[in-house]
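Researcher: I'd like a candidate sequence for this fold, 120 residues long. If you have to choose between options at a position, lean toward the conservative one.
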């Protein structure tokens, strides 16, 4: 039960970090870099969501998920192709895209800190 709430909180923290990071990059750099960060963060949250759905599908009694295993295997290829398009074809620097790809990891760390503080 608390695991479900934690996963939802991680998603909302990730969305908040995405919004804050995009605004910060736009204010300090330019719109192209902000777009790169936003795209990387979107890919990161999409990847987290697919991992979450895969985990939910492995629970006993869960409805079978068609196509999720194929998408799970292809997600790194999709992320790589999107990063290639962003960096090579659109001319956006790779650093904001990489920073955006770490949004899910940062959201998990914030959730861990929240759980540690709120458990006392």
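Model: Candidate sequence:
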């Amino acid at each position: 039960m608390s695991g479900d709430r934690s996963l939802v909180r991680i998603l909302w923290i990730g969305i908040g970090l995405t919004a804050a990071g995009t605004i910060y990059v736009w204010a300090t750099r330019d719109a192209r870099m902000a777009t790169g960060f936003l795209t990387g963060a979107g890919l990161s949250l999409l990847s987290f969501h697919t991992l979450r759905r895969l985990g939910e599908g492995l629970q006993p009694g869960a409805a079978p998920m068609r196509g999720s295993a194929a998408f799970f295997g292809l997600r790194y290829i999709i992320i790589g192709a999107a990063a290639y398009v962003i960096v090579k074809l659109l001319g956006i620097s790779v650093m904001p895209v990489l920073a955006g790809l770490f949004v899910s990891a940062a959201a998990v760390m914030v959730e861990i800190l929240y759980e540690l503080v709120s458990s006392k």
